[in-house]
Each structure stands twice: as structure tokens, then as C-alpha cells.
Task: inverse folding
């Protein structure tokens, strides 16, 4: 393991050449968009660690980057499952340089109506899953002597609630992810491991298809302010690419909001 006192030659280009990166929940949606951006910016290989099957969108990205995008089945709520997947990544690719803790669940309803099971499901994936994924990656980085980068997917809901579709358990879980970012960055700096997060706003995915279909959507946009549309998943990628790259070698413990200046409250 390199010590923090060793001189560092700053990297001036934001690119991921030679890097092996694992992304939880990347078979579709935001995770797949991150994978696409990483491969476009030179990553050698991306491994999606996901509990479900891949689909046509995954196949489309894979076709554009033959032999560079892989899917491994893993359950982020079980640390041994994530550990086994990471071990397999290193066995197949020879290394691991970056981990994106992206797998997440959402459910929006009044706080008084949430069942214990629904809360457990949200926190199991969003909080426990993020923590387990980060810890398994950190262990791998330390064992390899790699200056690794961990990036969490948080949310603008971690800053303030969405009045239209409230979810106290979801917002709390993502606020926990942001706090985890700062604490783990502090703990793991001694190992040259950087820990950051990205907070997306309104993003066009299978989970948000209904948002622009609301009859008062145009009025909502005027109320929210900012860019009058949802973000495309690929528009989030630049933040992740930067944080995973060596150009961000002195960037740790930060959150990057990607929300088009749309106020979420």
C-alpha cells in the first residue's frame, strides 16, 4: 500500500483508461447509464452486480463495447453475496479499481401508511446494500494495494423532501448514504481510498415514466424552476466518471448534485 506521503503526479485528463469498475444495479436505468459513460471514457471493463436479469438496453450497450460489459448476479442486502461477486470480478479481470454503489429501491407514500416490511425493503437495499458494497470494495482495494474510488448514488431527496411524492423512509435512506460518504471517506483516506457520492434529481427511468404524464406537469416545472425536463441517465455519467478517475485524486467526501437546478421541494 502506498503511503499518503509519497509524491503524486497530478493527472490532468478525466478518463478511465485501464480501470476495472463494478456497479451495483447496472442492468438497467441509472446504473447502466453510468456503465455506458464509463466505457465511453475508456474503462477497460464494467461489471454490473445485479439481482435481476439483463434486458435489451443492456444488450445494446454491450454490443457497442464487445467484451467489456459483464453481468454478475448478486444480492446487495447480503454482504457475502457482494463479496463473492467482487472476488469473481478480480478473478476474471485481475483487478478492481472502482466501485459504484448504485443499487436502490424507491416507494412513495405517506409516512403513516408505510408498513415495516416496506421500510425494511427500502433500507435493506439503499442503506445496508450501499454499506456492504462499499466495505467489500474497500477490503479488495486494501488487499490489492489499489488507490480505489467508491461512488455512492444518493439523491436530491436526501437534502429536502419532494412535496408531490413524499417518502420519509426513502429520503432518510439516501441522507444516510450521504452521511456514510463523509464518514467512510474520513476512515479510509489512510488507505488512499476516495469516497464520494452523486445526488441525481428527476431522472428519466422506468421508475419515473409517470412523472411527465401528470396532467399538471408543465405547471409543476414552472414551480420547480430550473431546466424544464427530466435528466437522461447518460447526463449523470460525467459526475461519476470524474469521481472514478485519477483526475479526482484529491477529491473525497463530497456530494455532486446533478439536478438541473430543479428544486425538489
Result:
Amino acid at each position: 500500500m502506498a503511503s499518503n506521503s509519497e509524491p503524486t503526479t497530478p493527472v490532468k485528463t478525466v478518463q478511465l483508461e485501464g480501470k476495472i469498475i463494478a456497479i451495483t444495479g447496472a442492468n438497467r436505468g441509472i446504473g447502466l447509464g453510468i456503465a455506458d459513460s464509463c466505457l465511453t471514457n475508456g474503462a477497460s471493463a464494467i461489471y454490473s452486480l445485479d439481482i435481476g436479469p439483463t434486458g435489451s438496453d443492456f444488450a445494446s450497450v454491450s454490443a457497442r463495447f464487445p467484451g467489456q460489459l459483464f453481468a454478475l448476479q448478486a444480492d446487495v442486502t447480503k454482504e457475502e453475496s457482494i463479496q463473492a461477486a467482487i472476488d469473481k470480478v478480480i478473478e476474471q479481470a485481475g483487478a478492481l479499481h472502482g466501485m459504484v454503489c448504485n443499487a436502490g429501491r424507491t416507494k412513495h407514500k405517506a409516512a403513516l401508511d408505510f408498513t415495516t416490511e416496506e421500510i425494511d425493503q427500502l433500507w435493506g437495499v439503499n442503506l445496508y446494500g450501499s454499506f456492504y458494497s462499499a466495505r467489500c470494495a474497500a477490503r479488495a482495494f486494501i488487499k490489492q494495494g489499489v488507490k480505489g474510488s467508491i461512488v455512492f448514488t444518493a439523491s436530491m431527496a436526501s437534502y429536502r423532501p419532494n412535496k408531490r411524492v413524499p417518502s420519509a423512509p426513502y429520503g432518510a435512506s439516501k441522507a444516510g448514504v450521504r452521511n456514510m460518504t463523509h464518514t467512510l471517506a474520513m476512515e479510509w483516506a489512510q488507505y488512499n481510498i476516495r469516497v464520494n457520492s452523486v445526488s441525481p434529481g428527476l431522472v428519466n427511468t422506468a421508475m419515473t415514466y409517470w412523472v411527465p404524464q401528470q396532467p399538471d406537469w408543465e405547471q409543476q416545472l414552472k414551480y420547480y424552476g430550473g431546466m424544464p425536463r427530466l435528466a437522461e441517465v447518460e447526463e449523470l455519467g460525467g459526475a461519476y466518471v470524474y469521481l472514478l478517475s485519477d483526475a479526482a485524486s484529491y477529491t473525497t467526501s463530497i456530494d455532486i448534485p446533478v439536478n438541473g437546478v430543479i428544486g425538489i421541494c
